[in-house]
Amino acid sequence: MGKSPFLNSIRQFMRTQGYSIRTEKTYIYWIKYFIRFHARQHPSALSADHVMSFLNHIANSKNVSINTQKTALNALAFLYNRFLKQPFGELDFKYAKQGRRLPIVLSPNEVSLILSKLNSRDRLIFSILYGSGLRISECMRLRVMDIHFSNNSLTVRKGKGNKDRVTILSAQLFEPIKQQIQQSISIQAQDNLKGYGPSLPHALGKKYPSACRQSDRMFLFPSTTICNHPYTGIVCRHHLHDTVARKALKQAVIACGLGGKKISTHTFRHSFATELLKSGRDIRTVQELLGHKNVTTTQIYTHVIGQHFAGTQSPLENINIE
C-alpha cells in the first residue's frame, strides 16, 4: 500500500502545495485507512455516504477523540476537494460527544523542579516551551534567524495552520540560547567542510544552494546525526526529533516524583497560557502569542484558573470591610 502509485501521486501533490512532512504523513495515514475500510476501492468510485460511514466508524466504534475525528475529516476533505476535485459538499456528520476536559497545568515550582532534572540542552528546550508558549514541534524547528534578542521575541515559522507568528522570549534565556547557537554553528561549520549543512525547504535549497552555509539558517537544536532530505535525497542535518525531548521529560518527571500527574511537552504550553492569564494579561494577547485561530480555544484556560475572564476579581476586593 505504501508503494501505491495513487498514494505517491498524493504525496507529490502535497509537496507541490507546500504541506509539511508531518501533515503529509497524517493525511496519507487516514486516506489509507479510508481505502482499506472500503475494501480497497478507489476513492474516486466512492461517495459522500462512504465518507460518512467511515467517519461514523472511527467516531463510534473506535472511540477516537474529537480532534482525531477532525483530522480524519480534514484528510478526506483534502483528498476529495483538492486532489480528486470531487467535492462531497456538506456532510451531515456530528462529532462524537465528549465532555470538556481542562488541560493539565504545572505550577511555577513544579516547572522549576522539572527543569532542574534536565541537562542544559533539554532544560533550554523546556524553558522555551514554558517561557514562550511553543509547541514542541515549533521549538525543534527554530533556526538561528528566528531568535531576536533586540526585542525579546522569537518567530515561529509555519506553525499550526501553516502560519507564522511572533511570541515573547525571556531575557533569562539569552545566555543559554547564545551558547546553544555557538554549538550549533560549530556543528554547521564541520558539516560544511564535508559538503552539507542544515536541511532546507525544497524550494529554498534549490534556488539558493549556498544557503546551507549561512549561519542564520542553522537549527537551534540540530540532530545528532545526518540524514537524506525526504524530498531531494540530499545529505543534510535535520533538527532534533520531538521524541528526544519527550524521553528526557519522562525521566525528569519520574525523578521529581510527579509521575502521578499526566505531564507532556504540551503541558508547558498550557502552563504558559495559564500563568499569563493569572498575571492579568488580556485573553486576546494570549491568543496571539499562542497562535490560536479562534479566541474560544484560548478561553479554556480561563476555566483552569477558576475565572470566566482572566484578571477578573470581585469588586469587594477594592474596599475594606473590617
Structure overview:
This protein is mainly alpha-helical. It has two domains: 5-83, DNA polymerase, domain 1 (Orthogonal Bundle), CATH 1.10.150; 100-311, Orthogonal Bundle (hpI Integrase, Chain A). It is 50% helix and 4% strand. The chain has 14 helices and five strands. The chain has helices spanning 5-16, 21-37, 48-61, 66-83, 108-116, 120-132, 136-140, 174-193, 202-207, 242-256, 265-278, 283-290, 295-298, 300-304, and strands at 147-148, 153-156, 165-168, 227-228, 235-236. Strands 1-2-3 form a three-stranded antiparallel sheet. Strands 4-5 form a two-stranded antiparallel ribbon. α1 (5-16) runs antiparallel to α2 (21-37), α3 runs antiparallel to α4 (66-83) and α5 packs across α10 (242-256).
CATH superfamily of the largest domain: Intergrase catalytic core
Uncertain segments: none
Q: What is the fold-level CATH name, i.e. the topology of the largest domain?
A: hpI Integrase, Chain A
User: How many helices in DSSP terms?
Assistant: 14
Percent helix = 40-55%
Strand content: under 5%
Q: What is the CA-based Rg, rounded? A: 23 Å
